[in-house]
Amino acid sequence: MTQSRNLGFIGLGSMGSAMAPRLLKNGHVVIAYDIDGAAREDFAAAGGVAGESVAEVGDRSEIVFTSLPSPQIVRDVAAELAETRVRIMVDLSTVGSRASMDAAVALADRDKAFADAPVSGGRAGALAGKLTLMLAALPAVQEEVTPLLSHFGKVIPVGAQPGQAQTMKLINNIMSVVALAATSEGMAMGVKAGLDPRVMLDVLNVSSGQNSATKDKFPRAVVPRTFDFGFATGLSLKDVRLCLDEAQALGVPMMLGNLAKTMLDITAAQFGPDADFTMMARVVEQWAGVEIG
């Protein structure tokens, strides 16, 4: 166990509510804030301190972790924290490199540090402490925050500049969606041809076609027909849009990425943005006139 620290956490949504309690379980004093009063009450019931504002969390913490839904909210929270006593803001959100760089500048103007640390692994990984965390920060900041981030899972440093971890996360996410789309089509084709979907996954997962969808999403959420992998279509769309914007700014064509976005757009239009993104398979099933699983 690391030495007990006075920590803050802002954003107790699906991911934040799973991560913040892990800091408590590892002996840290944690004050947390969310705009949802019920989320604050749940955190207090778990042994944490419910803060009344971003400013209060910043003034009572050495280091503040944030798990927030949009680039602008990250910018706004960074600007508020810059006016408090906090020394380091560690952003666990997926918001793109430009928002991270803006947050870092706002904090640096007040002699405060920023760590860009998006996570992968979903709520289940957060609850189990088995996330993958991509970390970009100055070496001294990395050294200080890595033991704390390790409470959430495996930490992989990817660079020293804010935004580099965001870029890595967006690449990961768009590749994951492309794999989901391709697997949906392949599985629908196989089932319509008379193949058993479970046998198909057995073959794929020891062959060159294996990917994150065949190894996890389909056996866990599609074949059993639960469609509850734990990641909303709307959030996936947000990440894919960020990736496509950054790729365009860098002059990198993303033909498959744009097709994946179209599939997410259709999924959201048909089932709603809150539907699990594995519902993409349902779209393909309807087109193919077949049911996987």
List the helices and strands and how they pair.
Elements: E1 6-10, H1 16-25, E2 29-33, H2 37-45, E3 49-50, H3 54-59, E4 63-66, H4 71-81, E5 88-91, H5 97-108, E6 113-116, E7 119-120, H6 122-128, E8 131-136, H7 139-149, E9 153-159, H8 164-192, H9 197-204, H10 212-222, H11 233-250, H12 255-271, H13 280-288
GO biological process, one term: organic acid catabolic process
EC number: 1.1.1.31
Keywords: NAD, Oxidoreductase
Structural features, described:
The chain has 293 residues and is α/β, with parallel strands linked by helices. The chain has 2 domains: 155 residues, Rossmann fold (3-Layer(aba) Sandwich); 122 residues, N-(1-d-carboxylethyl)-l-norvaline Dehydrogenase, domain 2, CATH 1.10.1040. The protein has 13 helices and 9 strands. The chain has a 6-stranded parallel sheet, sandwiched between helices. It has a 3-stranded mixed sheet with strand order 7-8-9. Helix 4 links the parallel strand 4 and strand 5. The protein is elongated and about 65 Å long. 47% of the residues are buried. The model has no long low-confidence stretch (mean pLDDT 97).
- Assign the CATH architecture of the largest domain: 3-Layer(aba) Sandwich
Widest sheet, order of strands: 3-2-1-4-5-6
State the helical fraction. 40-55%
Spatial gap, N to C terminus: 44 Å
H/I helix tally: 13
CATH topology of the largest domain: Rossmann fold
Please give the CATH class of the largest domain: Alpha Beta
Largest sheet: 6 strands, parallel
Let me know the CATH homologous superfamily of the largest domain: NAD(P)-binding Rossmann-like Domain
Q: SS-based structural class?
A: alpha/beta
Global shape? elongated
What is the β-strand count?
9
Tell me the number of structural domains.
2
Average pLDDT for all residues: 97
Low-confidence blocks of residues:
none
Radius of gyration: 20 Å
Strand content: 5-15%
Order of helices and strands: EHEHEHEHEHEEHEHEHHHHHH
